[in-house]
Amino acid sequence: MTKAIEQGWTYLRGDRMIWMVVIFLFIFSMLAVYSATGTLAYKMQVGSEKYLIKQILMAVFGLSLMYITHLIDYKYYSRIAQLLWFLSIPLLIYTMFFGVEINDANRWLMLPGIGLTFQTSDLAKLALIMFLARQLSLKQEQISDFKEAFIPVILPIVITCVLIAPDNLSTSVMLFFTSVFVMFIGRIALKHLAMVSGISLVVFALFFLLLFLLPDDLLKGRMLTWKHRIENYTQTMRGETELGDEDYQIQQAKIAIAKGGLFKINPGGSDQKNFLPHPYSDFIYAIIIEEYGLAGGAMMVLLYLFFLYRCIRIVIKAPKAFGALLAVGLGIALVTQAMINMAVTVNLVPVTGVTLPLVSMGGSSVIFTSLAFGIILSVSRNVEEEKSEEAHE
Q1: CA dihedral sign, ordered 125, 131, 137, 141
Q2: Cα–Cα distances in Å, from 201 out to 177, 197, 205, 231, 345?
Q3: Contact in structure between 363 and 51 (CB atoms under 8 Å)
Q4: What pLDDT score does 5 carry?
Q5: Which of 233, 231, 283, 229 is nearest to 255 (CA)?
Q6: Per-domain residue ranges for the chain?
Q7: What is the pLDDT of residue 361?
Q8: For residue 164, what are the contacts with CB-CB under 8 A and spacing of at least 6?
Q9: Measured distance CA(289)–CA(298) in Å, rounded
Q10: Cα 161 to Cα 88: distance, rounded to the nearest angstrom
């Protein structure tokens, strides 16, 4: 058994610690999804094993994607990034008008012939961060120039986020601020970043002013949902007792957290999975805490933070700007998503609907998250090989 594990490790390149983080996250995922899908399985009149098998298959497929992706020289992802971003824009536009509508949001496209759906925003997030790393690396010599560097970098961000926002505001906002942070790391002039920050604050202020000044019957699309989520969040923070749908979710998540205590090992022992909406996706972190206590929840936080730390180590060692920006951009995007998901569960921010990377049950999110991990590992693998070649010279 030990020899088999050692032989398995020899086929994996890149940061071994990141591989360990991935394995731990998938283990948490399979345990939590198997437990959290009990009620769903009962409603669908199938066995819970169906969802466990599905999650195992997704984990195997995700690991396979990571392995294949990490074998590709990260330099090729510069051209791939360009192709993916130009592909994602028409897909986002098509989804906005002709996508599959779920919960009043057109976020999904149906793949013809196989009947599966995927969120085009998942592809757009990955494509934008990769394309942003490409643009920043190419513009390093003119990085302080407004026309030559700032405009070619900010335009793809604005276009992508504007197209995502109507049906997925939380993802759009998260992606925008992640991109601005990557711009900061990429040495965009501070005066240009200050301008972006100032304009963003004005736009958000006007948006929320409009959201709460207009009567409900004049609000279009998802605007009413956003308004209710913010109102429900403030009501919950004030301790008001009238519960809307989001309030109910948060209250059940709080009960799950309270039942978990400090230390607990009770796989499959969650009671709140029977009451909490979407315990296998948006609120899977509450199920983990209920079954493994705050210690289990803290371990999840530490896994993501440790992953970010390893990404920063890659950045420090990477000799090329593209590799460094690619690793840190994707790492920040994944960890930010994880922290927002967990913050929603403990009621630090309003309900957003973002999943917990590699842990929540899902299809396209697992696929594109696995690709992001694989690309980061590709950068790490190439950095290690270059260091090894230098040592042998």
Answers
A1: negative
A2: 12, 6, 6, 20, 26
A3: no
A4: 45
A5: 283
A6: 15-382
A7: 86
A8: 92, 121, 124, 171, 172, 175
A9: 9
A10: 12
What's the pLDDT at 347? 83
pLDDT of residue 57: 92
Instruction: State how far the Cα of 362 lies from the Cα of 392, in Å rounded to an integer.
Output: 44
Question: How many angstroms separate the first and last alpha carbons of the chain?
Answer: 37
3-state SS, residue 219: coil
Q: Please list the alpha-helical segments (H only) found in 99-222.
A: 120-138, 151-164, 169-185, 190-213
380 within 8 A of 314, measured Cβ to Cβ = yes
The edge-to-edge listing of strands for the beta sheet with 100-102 is 100-102, 105-111, 116-119
| Averages of pLDDT over each 10 residues, the chain, 393 residues | 50 84 93 86 80 90 94 93 94 84 66 70 94 93 90 94 87 92 92 92 86 72 72 65 62 88 84 85 91 93 96 87 92 95 87 87 87 95 71 54
What's the chain's length in residues? 393
Burial 27-58 (b: 16+ CB within 10 A, else e): ebbbbbbbbbbbebbeeeeeebeebbeebbeb
| pLDDT attached to residue 349 | 82
Residue-wise DSSP of 200-214: HHHHHHHHHHHHHHS
The token pair that represents 47 in the structure block = 């066995």
Asked if 279 and 296 count as a contact pair (C-beta separation under 8 A), the reply is no
pLDDT value of position 306:
97
Cβ-contact 361, 280 below 8 angstroms: yes
Residues with Cβ < 8 Å from 131, sequence gap 6 or more?
Answer: 81, 82, 84, 85, 156
What pLDDT, on a 0 to 100 scale, did the predictor assign at position 4? 46
Question: In which residue are the tokens 């594109």 written?
Answer: 368
Tell me if 196 sits within 8 A of 154, measured CB to CB. yes
